[in-house]
Each structure stands twice: as C-alpha cells, then as structure tokens.
Specification:
The protein is an alpha/beta fold and 591 residues long. The chain has 21 helices and 24 strands. It folds into three domains: 98 residues, Elongation Factor Tu (Ef-tu), domain 3 (Beta Barrel), CATH 2.40.30; 241 residues, P-loop containing nucleotide triphosphate hydrolases (Rossmann fold, 3-Layer(aba) Sandwich); 180 residues, P-loop containing nucleotide triphosphate hydrolases (Rossmann fold). The chain is globular and about 65 Å long.
C-alpha cells in the first residue's frame, strides 16, 4: 500500500532528527570519556572512589557500592559505564538503580557480564561510574519503519503526526463519561478533560499547569478504561514520571491490575509491582482490563515485545519528542497526551549545541496543539493565590486560579519564639533579595552562603527538611551549596539528605512548602550569553511554581542591571524575568 509523499516527509523528518541526535551523542561521549576523571566528576558526569560491596539482588543483577560523595547528575534509569576509570575501554553497561546513605546501586545491563564482573570485583580496588548513552538508533529505525510498513502506522499514526487526522468526539460518550466522572470528586475542568479523553478518537490533549491535579485526572481516565476492559499503557520520558502516575492509578484501580515493566529502579515510594519482562507478569494472561507502566523504549525491546494496548497515555508529553511518542503510538489505537507546553520542552542535544539553547525542541504535545484543541485544567491545588498570580497572568491568560482550600495558605513556624527577623518572616509569599556580588557565572560562593543561612533558619524554626527545596540554574551551584550545607550540618547528616538542592530540570513535577531560587550569575557578559537559558519562559515557570506558600528569589545586582539593559533593548525574555521580580517584595538581607 502506498504512502502519500507529505506523510513520507514526516517520517523522513523524524528519522533525520533521530540520526543527527545519535551522531552528536556518540561524538560527544567519546570526547567526554577522554577527559581526566577529576574533570568528569566536576561536571557531574562521573562518580569516583566507589568500592564494591555486594550483589544486593542477584535475580535482577543489582550491584551495591560504597560511595563517600556523589555530586553527579544521575537519576533513576540513566545509562552509565562502570569501569576502573576506563569508560572508553573495558567497561560494564549499567543503569542507575538508586542511592541511600553511603551507597550507590546499579543494575548490570547484560546478563552475560555478571560472571565476569563478579570475578573482577574480587581484585579491583576502586570503580568509577561515567555518564553514557544507549545506542537506540536501531529501535528508532524499527519504529519509524513501521510508520509506513504497518496499517496502523499508515492509516493513523503518520496522518496524526502530519495533522491530517483530527480527533473526533462522540458526544454521547462524552455526556455519559462526564456524568460518571462528576460523582468522583473532580472539578469541572478535570471532568471535562477526562470525558474528552474517553470520548475522543484517535487522541485527546490535556494541558495541566502546575498543581492542577493532572496526574489525578490521568488516574481517573485509567480507571474508566480498565472498567471497560481495556489494556492501558502509561508511559512518559522518565521512570519517575511513570512511577508517580502509577501510584495515583493504584489509588483508584486495584494494584493487582497494575504493573511496571522494565529495568529495576530503586524507588521505595513505588506502590505497584515491578517485573523485568511482561511474560513474567501475571497480567500477561489477563482476559480483562489492566495497566502497564513502561518507557517507550521498553516497548520495542524484548521486555514488552509484541504487546499491544487499547489506549496509550503519555504523561509529561510536552517533554516527549514526536519520534519517541511514535514508539508508543504504534502500540495502540487511541492516545491521551497529558502535558503543558508552558513547562520544560524536550532536550535535543544536537539542536541546543548547534543553534543555542533558544532553539525550542519540538514535543508531541506542541506539535498536536497546532492541529487540535486541548482542555486546560484551571484550578491549582498547590500554590496560594499570591504565588499563583504571576504564572496565571503570564502563561495561562489569567485562567489559572488557586483552589479556595489553599488560596490563603501562609507559611507557619512550629518554633518561632526568639527567632530573629529574616526574609522568612515577611508577610508576602514571594520575596526577592538583591545581592552584591560580581563576576560570578555558574557558581557563587556568596549566594551559597546565604542559601545555607536561610536553610539554617528554616531548620531552627522547627520546619521539616523535606518541605524546603533549593532550585538553581547550574549543577556547579548545586554542588557548592551541598558541600557547604554538609559542613554546617556535620552533626546532623540526616537533615542534609532530606533537603533537595537541584536544577530546574530535576524539579519539574515536584513541590515543597517553601522554595529558594538561587539565580547565581552576576557577570554581565556571561548573563547576556545565557539569556535564552536563564530567562527561558518555561524554565522560569517551572522554577517559581514549586512552592506552596513561600518562595525566596536570590538575585545579584549584576543580573538585575543586565536584565534591565536587555529589556530596554527589546529583549522579551529579560522583560519577563523583571516582571517576576516586580511581582515579588524586595527584602533586605540582614547579613
């Protein structure tokens, strides 16, 4: 069966992006692995000084190592190279399993490597973990080939990607679903979004701004589908997003009908069972509805080979490229895309490297929004009304409103007696502190000192360490703050482990009672070069919407002055950043 030329152009467009990304990553990592170990560690792309401890799970090949310091950027499911500082030579392919107090766990990727590693581990004294990548070109090529070689690819997926196939809504099914969902403690826009997802074919789009209950809405959609007897796939870019979605699903669907398939990931909070392969999962023999969580890549390997679904739900789809989404779309007849194009876009390394970080990578969510409308969730259950206002005005046409239950929320202190006056004590929920430091780029000693002082005040006030977060633009600043925090809380290491200090990218999807934003930079020339990154609209939106009741913005005079100069020259990103400061209250720093 022939395929129209314009549809073939879509396939070729995706294939070109995938090939260019593959070639760029291969070259990038070959150069990275040749750098000195100290440099790789400083960049957050390696962990050194690991000593082998034991096999903590022989069936799943989980290896445990002692680790004194980990300041890497690694997260669950990341692909790494385990070696004796020979990442470009002899090494073992592993995935990041997790970490806890003093240990790091990885999963040995290839079963055949297990005997060789156990022998080598007896004589090796020290190991390193290096950031790596998986050569996924073959999986992508298989999926993109199916776009033209299979009926579902030709008749549905390709036309959807090309904008030639628009969603149709069964109004009768919509009314019935809305009636059923209305009795499940959902607000009006959540009911509308879920009913639209259940009544639309072949796809529906749900835009979920921060804190609007998009994952809860996703879970209610899954429940209705399972009750209809459908096989449902829940997928996303990251394991963390998949786990969060599955946890919500298990609140409304029997955990016996939910499973995660894929490489083992250390996550004590995951409430559903994990299986390496679908064939080992009890649901593989089910004759009624069930839910599987897996990454799109897992669908094209042996773990979920030849398994098809009725509906695929892609969470955080504004971070998923069209090529990656294609892997999931080819496995079902209906799709629900849950995302928010006003939050972080996908990361496509070769585009960022060749055209600068101002080049926004395309996502499946933004691509389809050009051809179909989305349902916007409008009630925010996270931020109070003051914190919600700037994002609502700036990104959501003033439609995002704080729920009455949290609109008036304020920061309370369990132990406020005798505490000195600090920015925490100020009544406004959004406060910024103007700092006097110069010529700082990706890290600032001065801001790190102030962040830790604020964290000490937080702790002295009797607040939980797990309810405060620090978001920074650069990994080096996060590392500096962590090192200083460990020194100040040397006698209380459990406190430092519970305080999250990370980049904006790693905070998306998370929330805390209070947040500190350290913007770090003060060198005017550097700031001017970093405008597309520092002042990126989606990045700012994610950073400032993590807090429930209080956010403190730490901003150097150099950053403010440079932003004012750029804004006067017509730079919209700089003007956006200044509007954020104007929305906050200036607080003096007491020293």
């Amino acid at each position: 069966m022939s395929t129209e030329p314009n549809l073939l152009a879509v396939r070729d467009e995706l294939a070109s992006l995938v090939k260019n990304e593959h070639d760029y990553l291969r070259s990038f990592y070959e150069q990275l692995w040749r750098r000195p170990l100290a440099k790789r560690v400083r960049l957050g792309r390696a962990v050194d000084g690991l000593t082998y401890d034991r096999v903590s799970d022989e069936k799943r090949r989980v290896l445990q190592f002692h680790c004194a310091v980990n300041e890497s950027r690694f997260r669950a499911g990341d692909v790494l190279r385990l070696s004796q500082n020979t990442p470009s030579g002899r090494h073992y392919e592993v995935t990041w399993y997790g970490e806890d107090d003093g240990w790091i766990g990885v999963v040995l990727y290839r079963k055949g490597d297990f005997p060789a590693f156990t022998q080598e581990a007896l004589i090796a004294t020290e190991w390193t973990l290096d950031e790596s990548y998986v050569d996924l070109l073959g999986l992508y090529e298989r999926a993109l080939g199916d776009l033209t070689e299979t009926q579902i690819g030709r008749d549905q997926v390709l036309p959807t990607l090309a904008g030639a196939l628009k969603p149709k809504v069964d109004l009768g099914a919509f009314d019935q679903a809305a009636t059923e969902l209305g009795a499940q403690q959902m607000n009006d826009t959540q009911v509308e979004a879920a009913a639209m997802a259940l009544a639309s074919h072949p796809y529906a789009l749900i835009q979920g701004p921060p804190g609007t209950g998009k994952t809860r809405t996703l879970a209610r959609i899954v429940r209705q589908l399972v009750e209809r007897g459908e096989r449902v796939l829940v997928t996303a870019l990251t394991h963390r997003a998949i786990h969060e979605a599955l946890n919500k699903v298990c609140d409304v669907v029997s955990p016996d009908l939910v499973a995660k398939i894929g490489v083992p990931i250390y996550d004590p909070g995951l409430t559903t069972k994990e299986f390496g392969y679908f064939k080992d999962c009890p649901l593989s023999n089910a004759d009624s509805g069930y839910v599987i969580g897996a990454t799109p890549f897992t669908l094209w390997g042996r773990r979920l080979q030849d398994v098809f679904f009725d509906t695929v739900i892609i969470d955080e789809s504004s971070q998923v490229t069209p090529a990656l989404a294609t892997m999931a779309m080819l496995k079902a007849r209906r799709y629900v895309f849950v995302g928010d194009h006003q939050q972080l876009p996908p990361v496509i390394a070769h585009l960022a490297a060749s055209q600068g970080s101002s080049q926004e990578a395309p996502s499946i969510f933004t691509r389809l929004r050009d051809h179909a409308s989305s349902t916007l969730l409008t009630t925010c259950y996270r931020m109070n009304a003051e914190l919600c206002q700037w994002s609502s005005d700036t990104f959501y046409h003033q439609r995002l409103q704080a729920s009455p239950d949290n609109a008036q929320r304020t920061l309370t202190w369990p132990n406020s007696d005798g505490l000195p006056s600090t920015p925490w004590n100020l009544e406004p929920s959004s406060v910024f502190i103007r700092l006097d430091h110069d010529e700082r780029r990706t890290d600032s000693r001065e801001e790190a000192e102030i962040v830790v002082a604020l964290l000490q005040d937080w702790s002295a006030g009797g607040n939980s360490p797990s309810e405060i977060g620090v978001v920074v633009p650069y990994r080096r600043q996060a590392n500096r703050i962590r090192r200083l925090l460990r020194r100040r809380f040397r006698e209380h290491p459990s406190i430092t482990r519970r305080i999250t200090i990370d980049t904006v990218d790693r905070f998306q999807g998370s929330e805390r009672e209070a947040m500190i934003l350290s913007f770090t930079a003060s060198d005017p020339k550097f700031i001017s070069e970093q405008v597309p990154f520092l002042f990126q609209a989606q990045r700012l939106n994610v950073a400032v919407t993590r807090a429930r009741s209080k956010r403190l913005l730490l901003v150097s005079h150099g950053l403010i002055d440079t932003a004012e100069t750029l804004a006067s020259q017509g730079n919209e990103s700089a003007a956006l950043f200044l509007s954020l400061l104007e929305d906050a209250t200036l607080a003096p720093w007491p020293g």
